[in-house]
Please model this.
Amino acid sequence: MKKLTANQIKTLNKQKSITKLLYIIKILRDPINGCPWDIKQNYTSLSQYPIEEAYELQEAVEKNDIINIKEELGDLLLQVVLFSQIGSEKKHFNFDKVAEEISNKLIRRHPQIFDRNYKKNDTPKETWEKIKLEEKKNKKNSDFYSILDDVPNNMPALIRSVKIQKKASLINFDWDDYKEVLKKLDEEICELKLALKAQNNKKHIEEELGDLMFTIVSLSRHLKLNPEKVLNNSIKKFKNRFLYVEKKIYDKKINVNNNKDVLNKYWKEAKKI
Model:
């Protein structure tokens, strides 16, 4: 690793926006003069970072923190450029090919905008999913391709549940409304109670609890609520109330052992705030 030459700095300063970023990453990845951390990265070692950056972006959006949204978008873009540089070095693909791929995909999947001969009356969502399904079939070189095949297995469970349920609804495999889901929810609670009553089959309890959680996700979806956001709001609410209880205990130097009445008292106070 060594400092840039005067000519390299001059070249860098002439670059604009995305070209400048691409140039910086190329320098950092230089096997002789680059940064040791950047040089040793590969697809696998970097795979966690886009997910982390996406979550940080989501938090910035939820806070409506415009300055931080811009920063987090840059961090996310950095991951795309890093992956693209590694792809270029391995002669797999480069940034231009990545941009070309997504551009072509957007044009293909929006025929109602880009194809003057397109006459169908499908909604944009229906059109997107139908074309996507055909593309997947062609890639798989098979007549059959499940609409669930492109839902990643390592996605967080709540998000994955929503995606799978939405995909299934594309072929009308879904409840008609939230009232039907509520009936199913009552059924799942009864089944869980029966499993708990038996007490001797942990796997069965786990299965029934999973069915219950999956149905709750379906209820959220039919109520047009994001279950991830709903749960996060409840977590925040619990955290704020618990902090109130915790502070009271600390200020009054209360021994919480065998003192649940006091904890409940402060919890009720916290709920009124």
